[in-house]
Write a structure and sequence with these properties.
This protein has strands at residues 16-22, 25-30, 35-39, 45-50, 57-60, 65-68, 73-77, 84-89, 91-92, 95-96, 100-106, 109-114, 119-123, 130-135, 156-162, 167-172, 179-181. By secondary structure, the protein is mostly beta strands. A hairpin with a 2-residue loop joins strand 1 (16-22) and strand 2 (25-30).
């Protein structure tokens, strides 16, 4: 229904940029504050942690947290210490893919929104190689733009995966809609 079930406000000085559920805990990062928080499933704060750099996106692979920072690198972090376990540089052929933003781990792959675009890179986690692209610009034609619409800023910026239904959900900055996508599995 889209009804809010629980909410937790952040301090006005913190811009939340990523949220991931791992081992019945919610992990949240901030954009520039280099601080994150851990909550229980009722959004009760359990602890805070610090990290270096910006936080642009966060997901998990069932074992570790994966974070993007706007560069071409993704890093795997330990859920308890948030220490980096490993990282990969994301590449499309020989070219690094920068501005990696919102993340979702699904079907053994990483889906990463490229900021200021309407594209999602589908990435092999072991190598960082882009296996495919989702070009979602046609979605912009499927809804009326609200007042103050700015095409340069109001781009794709949200990815979620429903494993039980094998469906993806996407939205964007200031988009008044959420799209459900049925994406065919990639061939080997």
């Amino acid at each position: 229904s889209g009804k809010t079930l629980r909410a937790r406000k952040l301090a006005r000085t913190i811009l939340g940029e990523g949220l991931a559920l791992l081992h019945k805990r919610l992990y949240q990062i901030s954009w520039r504050n280099q601080r994150g928080a851990v909550y229980d499933l009722q959004l009760k704060p359990l602890r805070e942690f610090e990290y270096q750099g910006e936080g642009w996106g966060l997901t998990d692979d069932g074992h570790s947290l994966l974070i993007s920072n706007g560069s071409s690198h993704l890093s795997w972090r330990d859920a308890e210490s948030f220490a980096e376990r490993r990282s990969v540089q994301v590449r499309d052929g020989a070219a690094p893919v920068t501005l990696l933003n919102e993340l979702e781990y699904a079907r053994g792959l990483i889906f990463a929104n490229v900021w200021m675009s309407n594209r999602i890179a589908i990435i092999a986690p072991d190598s960082g190689v882009v296996r495919a692209w989702l070009v979602l610009s046609p979605l912009l034609e499927r809804f009326d733009k609200p007042a103050g619409w700015n095409a340069a800023e109001h781009v794709l910026n949200g990815i979620a995966y429903d494993e039980a239904r094998d469906r993806f959900y996407v939205t964007g900055k200031c988009w008044p809609v959420l799209f459900e996508l049925d994406i065919a599995p990639l061939a080997d």
